[in-house]
Every structure is written in C-alpha cells, then in structure tokens.
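Exercise 7b. Backbone tokens:
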C-alpha cells in the first residue's frame, strides 16, 4: 500500500493553545496520554487524571518535558465528589478549563446473560456517567466565558452491534445520545460538543483479543483527530468524527 501524502497530515506551526487549559480524563496511558501530549505540544496547559499512581507520574514527567504546565491528580471520575475536587484543583493551578476531552473508558465483553450487575455498573459508570459528571463540573466556567470545546471519545461500537458487546455497546450508544443532546443544549453558549468514534486502537484496553498491528489505529491517530477538532475555525462545528484504520481487517 502506498503511503499517505504529507498533504494529508496535520502540520501546525507554533503553539496555538498557549495559555489555554485542557483537561483530559483517563490520561495516564493509551489514548488519553496521547491526547494530553498532543494538546501540550500545541501549547496548552494540561490536567491529567487516572487511578494508577505510577502510570500517572510517568505521563506527568513526559508532558512536563514539552515545556508547558501540567497538573496531575489521582481521581475516580465515577464519583461526583472526586470530580469536583479534580476540577477545582485544575482551575486553581492552571486556570479555567477551555478544552475538555472525556476519554476515560473500560470494556467488559461477553454474552449479556453471562455478565453481572457489577460489570454493568463498572462499564456504564466509567464510560457514560463520568462524561455527565465531569462535563457538569466544567461547564459553569465555559458558560461564563461563552466558549469551550468538549470532545467525548466514543467508539464505532456506539453505532454498531456485535456478539459479546452488549454492555460496552450500550455505554457507547449512550455516549452518542448524550453528546448530541449536550451539543444542542450548549451551542447557544458558544460551546461545541463533539464526539470521536474510533475503530480498534492498539492500546492496553481490555477487549476482544489480539489484532494485526497494521490493521488497527494508534493512540496518536485519535490524538490527531482531537487536534483537528479543536483547531477548526471559530464559526464551524465538527460534531462527529468516525475514525477507521486505513487497512481493512
């Protein structure tokens, strides 16, 4: 297969987000880490969070080397009290949050009749409830500013069904519905809510077995899509991005 031309890559000169604060959830590894690094490379002060202290520290050190402010915090974003503390600390250390990337996610797969209530709650709370909680905590400052971008990382599983995907698909279909309604609620305040739907991504995400690395996306591919959305012109609104590997499985 021939390579993609340089014209199809996203080249951005300078630091267009200098002075802008971004919060990326689930950002100690995988997609969230790649997104946080990308936004920091564009000049943003970045707040990251997760539940793995060692991974969070490693990511913090990597982002700090890019030369822009970074704030990290252990947080369980399925709990409203910890979300409020996360947002408060971020805004005290970095300033009002202008960019929010709701990335935290988890998967549990298998036939619905073999799953239990604990697995249902874990997936729905992490993938869907957290978006509600974090967005709700961040939005007052965005509304006051009359501007902001919220990007929810969904999945092509939010549009398609497959055997063993009942709980995961339910969470991601929920993300699609929540994102669309939030977009309509908030566009009058100058706030854009977008959703990115990747296909299979090569991460540590627990899931459906090994994939050919040449036929899956990388975390940087998703970070590239996030950058594309946040760099759009002020009058436009990219509401949804479907992101697939170029090579078919």
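Sequence design result:
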């Amino acid at each position: 297969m021939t390579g993609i031309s340089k014209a199809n890559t996203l080249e951005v000169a300078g630091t267009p987000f200098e002075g802008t604060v971004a919060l990326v959830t689930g950002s100690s590894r995988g997609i969230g880490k790649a997104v946080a690094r990308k936004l920091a490379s564009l000049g943003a002060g970045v707040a990251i969070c997760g539940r793995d202290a060692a991974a969070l520290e490693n990511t913090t050190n990597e982002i700090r080397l890019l030369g822009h402010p970074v704030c990290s915090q252990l947080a369980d974003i399925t709990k409203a009290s910890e979300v409020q503390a996360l947002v408060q600390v971020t805004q005290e250390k970095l300033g009002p949050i202008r960019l929010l990337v709701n990335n935290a996610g988890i998967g549990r797969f298998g036939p619905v009749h073999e799953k239990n209530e604990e697995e249902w709650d874990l997936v729905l709370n992490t993938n869907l409830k957290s978006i509600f909680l974090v967005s709700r905590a961040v939005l007052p400052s965005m509304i006051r500013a009359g501007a902001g971008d919220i990007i929810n990382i969904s999945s092509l599983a939010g549009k398609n069904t497959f055997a063993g995907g009942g709980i995961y698909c339910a969470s991601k279909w929920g993300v699609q519905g929540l994102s669309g309604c939030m977009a309509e609620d908030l566009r009058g305040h100058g706030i854009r809510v977008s959703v990115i739907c990747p296909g299979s991504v090569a991460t540590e995400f627990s899931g459906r077995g090994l994939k050919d690395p040449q036929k899956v996306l990388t975390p940087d591919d998703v970070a590239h899509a996030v950058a594309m959305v946040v760099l759009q012109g002020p009058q436009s609104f990219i509401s949804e991005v479907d992101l697939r590997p170029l090579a078919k499985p």
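Instructor comment: The domain at 17-243 is CATH 3.40.50.720 (Rossmann fold). The CA atoms of residues 166 and 172 lie 10 Å apart.
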